[in-house]
Amino acid sequence: MNVAALVSGGVDSSVTVFRLKEMGIDPTIFYIKIGMEDEEGYIDCPSEEDIEITTYIAKKYGCKFEIVSLHEEYWEKVVHYTIETVRRGQTPNPDMMCNKLIKFGSFEEKYGHQFDKISTGHYATITEKNGKSWLSTAKDSFKDQTYFLGQINYIQASRLMFPIGDLLKKEVRKIAEIQKLPSAFRKDSQGICFLGKINYNDFLKRYLGEKNGKIIDIETGKTVGAHKGYWFHTIGQRKGLGLSGGPWFVVKKDLESNTIFVARGYNPDEVYGNSILLQGFDFITGNPWDSSALTQKIKFKIRHTPDFTSGMLKPEGIGYRIVSEDKIHGIAPGQFGVIYDEEAHICIGSGIIS
């Protein structure tokens, strides 16, 4: 089998190469350079150490190794999406877009099409059922990354391999330690890659600027603070508001007046909800249910978390509505609702929260 292995230098993608070799596969290793563009050109993600480690992995296991640049594609498809989503007052998810449009999109178009499969270090699995490939959850529920893969399509899912999806994180680190991989004790990467060492709010300030506005208590209508632009805040946010006497949560934004509305305390009527409308819902492999049954029992997530929430999914207009069994905190327009089967095993698809 001809396999392209996307390796970042972290412990997870490094161990995937070892596991592929155990399967008798000699993958071609690819390191994808992505970055952010500004007036002076591109700002790379910190890549020097990553490339050194990936080069070592390739030599250790006797694999071909290529460094490829997808700077321009990343700017056009992911960074632009992030800026425009924030400008609309919504909450973006650049990690999901990176998987869909860059790792399994632009890379596939430029380099991956010559391979039978593409392998990554994601904590996920692929289940073959009824002659089709279904994106499925990982053994390690805490590390499971299927939420970030919820926007991929069937062609992408059918070509993916996740060699560490059947392992716990501690098992992955143990393999790396035994194999004496330099990434064995490396910390997991945090944050959004295209920012590099730039603070997220500094990034937003660079492209959207600052504009003073009011923070208003939605219950009393009184001004309780000030902010420097609605784009710095998201629904459900608690930290970074600079308000005393809390906890305070962002519950609404008025873009025209640049006003942030907040609620104090853990009042379910203001901070929580149980009805979530998804627009543009896409099934990854297909609709697994009897089409005559309009309402389905599901598990779902509206952000990356180890926990699933139970609910019902029913068609509504051009999308679907989730009715949750439990009150959900921070339902943020622009984010994605990712749907799973009732056993929380198969990742069925996703839609944008409206």
Question: What would you note in describing this structure?
Answer:
It contains 8 helices and 19 strands. Helix 1 (11-22) crosses helix 6 and helix 3 runs antiparallel to helix 4 (94-110). The protein is of the alpha/beta class. The model has no long low-confidence stretch (mean pLDDT 90). It has 3 domains: 3-121 and 163-195, Rossmann fold; 210-265, Adenine nucleotide alpha hydrolases-like domains (SH3 type barrels), CATH 2.30.30.280; 272-353, Elongation Factor Tu (Ef-tu), domain 3 (Beta Barrel), CATH 2.40.30. Strands 14-17-16-15-18-19 form a 6-stranded antiparallel barrel. Strands 5-2-1-6-9 form a 5-stranded parallel beta sheet, sandwiched between helices. Strands 11-10-13-12 form a 4-stranded mixed beta sheet, with no helix packed on it. 25% of the residues lie in helices and 31% in strands. The relative contact order is 0.13.
Keywords:
8 helices; 25% helix; 31% strand; 354 residues; globular; alpha/beta; Rossmann fold; SH3 type barrels; five-stranded parallel sheet; Elongation Factor Tu (Ef-tu), domain 3; six-stranded antiparallel beta barrel
